[in-house]
Design a protein that fits this description.
- It contains 3 helices and 6 strands.
- Strands 3-2-1-4-5-6 form a 6-stranded mixed sheet, with helices on both faces.
Length: about 110
């Protein structure tokens, strides 16, 4: 699960994530992703990936959240890119439940 994805970060990060997701697909791991923008080359490339469901939510967020199992990661790509890695099942479950609510309301 990934939410808050935006194309408006430096292109090197978009390239990194496209490569990372290509590896995820080869491992047979599905992904649901919530973008905050659309119509960009990054969005189109991401949307065409196998084993990937993409929806759009309104509003732009300065950070993105990824949940895999009991791991949550929070990313920001502003002037000083950074991320927080959290290994905690309760936190991952909280983010997953939040994601599910957004997924239902997304287009």
């Amino acid at each position: 699960l990934v939410m808050g994805i935006t194309s408006s970060k430096h292109e090197k990060y978009n390239r990194h994530w496209l490569k990372w997701h290509s590896k995820r697909i080869k491992m047979g791991i599905p992904c649901k992703a919530l973008f905050t923008d659309s119509g960009t080359p990054y969005f189109r490339a991401f949307s065409r990936m196998k084993r990937t469901d993409v929806k759009i939510v309104s509003g732009v967020t300065p950070s993105a959240i990824m949940v895999m199992g009991n791991v949550s990661m929070i990313f920001t790509y502003r002037e000083e890119p950074s991320f927080v890695h959290i290994e905690n099942a309760d936190i991952a479950d909280s983010f997953s439940q939040f994601f599910k609510g957004l997924w239902l309301s997304a287009k």
